[in-house]
Amino acid sequence: MLENNFNTDDIASIEVQVSPGGYNTITYVHHPSIEGKDVLALAAFYGGMGFKEAHNEKYYVSPAALSMQERISILPKEEWGGRDRFQSIGLSGPWLVGNLKGRAFTGA
User: Fold this and answer.
1) Considering all CA atoms of the chain, what is the largest pairwise distance in Å, rounded to the nearest integer?
2) What order of strands is seen across the sheet that includes strand 72-76?
3) pLDDT digits (tens, 9 = 90+) for 31-41
4) CATH class for domain 2-107?
5) DSSP-based three-state secondary structure for 35
6) Coil, strand or helix at 78
7) Is the dihedral of CA 77, 80, 84, 85 positive or negative?
């Protein structure tokens, strides 16, 4: 984010689309190392997420991380599902970050 000259206060929203199986896992398993909004909020705020951010309460319940979670939406992408197919969870893309300054950043 530093290369684009903005910080988490500039992020209006983050939207992630995942497979239906992945969606079920990252929205119903309540642990900061798995739950999608926790992972994304911690990564956005701290610049990454590791063991200390996922297992030390001062990180994952910080006001900054909780505020970031409110701006994150995770949506199941039904066409990425399939019967008898292995479901993987990937939060690497596609992604869209809406910037409060009116710019949008996307990735795959």
Assistant:
1) 44
2) 72-76, 11-18, 95-99, 104-107
3) 888 888 998 89
4) alpha beta
5) coil
6) helix
7) negative
Determine the number of helices (DSSP H) and then strands (DSSP E) in the chain.
5, 4
Mind listing the pLDDT tens digit for each residue in 36-90? Answer: 899 889 888 888 888 888 888 888 889 988 999 999 999 888 887 765 444 444 4
Report in angstroms the alpha-carbon separations of 19 from 25, 80, 86, 90, 91.
Answer: 10, 5, 10, 9, 10
**Is the CB of residue 72 less than 8 Å from the CB of residue 37?**
yes
**Any residues with CB less than 8 A from the CB of 38 and at least 6 apart, and which?**
31, 32, 54, 60, 65, 69
Q: What span, in angstroms and rounded, lies between the C-alpha atoms of 58 and 2?
A: 24
Q: Please state, in angstroms and rounded to a whole number, the distance separating the CA atoms of residues 20 and 76.
A: 5
Residues 6+ apart with CB under 8 A from 40: 14, 16, 68, 69, 72, 91
Could you tell me the pTM of the whole model? 0.69
